[in-house]
Amino acid sequence: MHETYWLKNVRLENGHSKENGAVTGTTTGLYDLLIENGTIVEIKTASSEMPHGAKQGGTESTKALPVLDARGLLALPSFIEKHCHLDKTLLGDRWRPVRPAPTIFERFEIEKNTLPKLATSMKHRAETLLGTLLQAGSTHVRTHVDIYPEAGLRHLEAIQEAIAAFEGKLSVEIVAFPQHGLIRTQSAGLVREALARGCGLIGGVDPATVDGDMERSLQQMMELAVEADADVDLHLHDGGSIGLQTIKRLAQLTEEAGWQGRVSISHAFALGDMEGREADETAQRLAELGITIITSVPIGRTIPPVPFLRAKGVPVAVGCDNIFDSWSPFGNGDILERAGRLAERFGYNTEQALADTIRLITGGRTPLDSDGRQAWPKPGDEASIVFAEASCSAEAVARRAKRPAVMYKGTVVSGSLERG
Does an H or E element contain 338, and which? Predict the structure, then answer.
């Protein structure tokens, strides 16, 4: 597309319909958006005539601008995939079931031995997954990349090559992820090198169980983060008292390092084991430090109490995690589907509750605020949009609406829109 054009007939949410004070639906209208250099610069009510001209340099242009017609599709903020593993996926390779593994350590070995023997390259499989994520509406991806002695930085190099093939279509942040144990595999040097070669975050896994030393593992992870000025995303499967102790100690280290707003905990199953005063105090601590909880909404086990955490001001996000790999044969890369699963899990079935679920996959962006006022898009916002076959965001979540097109910074990067 040209650098400046009109995006016509876009359906935007503009308010709530109410009955006896209760929200019963969402009102929408059709709008024309002026896009300039990947940014929304003007929004106006759609007209039957094709929009022409734009204010450029303070003068009215008489030249007709190009037009894309959304034909009434609902616009949603593009999605953020907060948890995936581009280096692990088997997408693009042949079908295979998951082999049983009694312990996490045996699972490590199965994966370690499987990936190098595949007929397809890691780059090819990662590109397949990136394309799948993009088609579902994710234009920003956080991927964890395994760092361990036998692999060195080969996984990182392959994933960086795959990401380069999607330049201009989405953005990616990489977590240097010592999955087999930062201390257990003595991988600090490799992680340090990965952080110097493009990883913006450092991860870790179950410091007490995998590394066998919660204190040393967390200390070393945070020291590497501070040294590299990197954010943190810890995978924590440990439940009960061990998991809660790990969360509390990480919170303390976050405060000591001044890393407020820069730490995430993925899974955090132990938060589902909290109750009473401990639950209130832990949630308050997480909120004060801006520690984000990322859940993949697994079925069949206790997960963090999302409604409780959000009510306490704790940042919460949703990610897909495993997408057909040595850990799970499931997963389709559709983050909207995963948000719908969360809504079902916690009984988010009203118009407002369903619509508000969108925040968990968009980094907090939402078409309407809690008072029903239009919150997105606004002039100055990046033109990264998911176009959905839905009447409103609540329907999009509940019905996992089809998405005929995805736009990133003003460019259609998946599907298509009609040219005017």
Answer: helix 335-345
